[in-house]
């Protein structure tokens, strides 16, 4: 895994898949991210060593710490996407842009976005 963005993308993907499916497998992660199974296997090995996931050979499970990290990333994604939609960006573009922005926006900027969303309801 090259960087935090990759780590966060894998964790977020496992989280979302675990919310949709009873069991998460490498193939689903590979399909969702558009990467090869060997790439997923390498990333999962790193995530396991870092304590974010566990596997039983077939299934992928988030640890408590992995789930917490993934939920934070997904929360950032959702807030940024909502913020962009409020600015007039269409939903698909907002979601795609949020996927990239969630990794690099500062905490101060994110908090301002979150405040803007909360106050504009």
Give the SSE layout:
Blueprint: H1 4-20, H2 26-33, H3 37-49, E1 53-55, E2 60-62, H4 64-86, H5 91-101, H6 107-119
Antiparallel strand pairs: 1-2
What does the model show?
It is elongated and about 45 Å long. It is mostly helical and 121 residues long. The termini are far apart. It folds into two domains: 65 residues, Arc Repressor Mutant, subunit A (Orthogonal Bundle), CATH 1.10.10.10; 49 residues, Iron dependent repressor, metal binding and dimerisation domain (Diphtheria Toxin Repressor, domain 2). A two-stranded antiparallel ribbon has the order 1-2. Strand 1 and strand 2 form a beta hairpin. Helix content is 70%, strand content 5%. The chain contains six helices and two strands. The mean pLDDT is 94.
Shape: elongated
CATH topology of the largest domain: Arc Repressor Mutant, subunit A
Percentage of β-strand residues:
under 5%
Overall pLDDT level: 94
- Secondary structure tally, helices: 6
Q: Quick one: CATH class of the largest domain?
A: Mainly Alpha
Q: Report the order of strands and helices.
A: HHHEEHHH
Tally of separate domains = 2
Tell me the Rg in angstroms.
15 Å
Q: Look at the structure and name the CATH superfamily of the largest domain.
A: Winged helix-like DNA-binding domain superfamily/Winged helix DNA-binding domain
Structural class: mainly alpha
CATH architecture of the largest domain: Orthogonal Bundle
Low-confidence spans = none
**The biggest beta sheet, please?**
2 strands, antiparallel
The percent range for helix content is over 70%
- End-to-end Cα distance: 39 Å
Identify the strand order in the major beta sheet.
1-2
Count of DSSP strands:
2
